[in-house]
Amino acid sequence: GDSVTQMEGPVTLSEEAFLTINCTYTATGYPSLFWYVQYPGEGLQLLLKATKADDKGSNKGFEATYRKETTSFHLEKGSVQVSDSAVYFCALRPGAQKLVFGQGTRLTINP
Amino acid sequence: NAGVTQTPKFRVLKTGQSMTLLCAQDMNHEYMYWYRQDPGMGLRLIHYSVGEGTTAKGEVPDGYNVSRLKKQNFLLGLESAAPSQTSVYFCASSTPGRWEEDEQYFGPGTRLTVT
Questions:
Q1: Is A14 exposed, middle or buried, given 0-12, 13-18 or 19+ CB atoms closer than 10 A?
Q2: In the 8-state DSSP scheme, what is residue A84?
């Protein structure tokens, strides 16, 4: 079945460090891929998305590229800030009305 | 706009008790969803609705019922709570468009503990 695997957290970095959160998926067909972020005390919100192979989603300095050959959608940011501390969820959409989430990765950035 | 709101934020139930979680959205979205989030498992879809008066089962529907009597509200009911239903519950909504791209808007969650 469809599934998403994220790197296990928690991840702790210093401010201005480079961030990578790995995400790989299993799906039939050609799913859309998403990264959602959950800040403390809030609901999930869409960070970026990609709907086909080789698409790059980007937002707020974060990027992720849809790699069909490696079934991956890794999240990257060149220089993280304390305000990026949150839980990050990778998700895939194999069809209408269905969103499959990874387990989430908690990120903490220290000043 | 308040977006998606959920009531209550926290609740503790005893085994066998019943309760209803309320989700409300003010974005005129057609689609609404209920998810549960358990440690190490991500979010799993419980039930969803594609419009007023319609509901459908998701991945983990057992032990839950839902109703969508008004477009802006989506209720999740637990008739006889069990400890296995201890979880954080998220409601979401979206507008139908190209499903490959549509964004789901999430509420802040309800933390439910069943003892």
A1: exposed
A2: G
| Neighbouring-strand partners of residue A60 | none
Residues in chain A with CB shorter than 8 Å from the CB of B48 are 97
Residues from chain A that touch B43, judged by Cβ atoms under 8 A, are: 44, 89, 99, 101
Burial code (b: 16+ CB inside 10 Å, e: under 16) for B43-72 equals: bbbbbbbeeeeebeebebbeebebebeebe
A99 contacts B42? CB cut-off 8 A: no
**Residue A50: closest CA among A87, A86, A92:** A92
What residues of A are in contact with residue B56 (Cβ under 8 Å)?
97
Helix (H, G, I), strand (E, B) or coil at A18: coil
* Type of residue found at A30: Y
Q: Note the pLDDT tens digit of each residue in B8-59.
A: 999 999 999 999 999 999 999 999 999 999 987 789 999 999 999 999 999 9
CA A107, CA B11: separation in Å to the nearest integer? 27
Contact A51 B42 (CB under 8 A): no
CB contact under 8 A, A97 and B99: yes
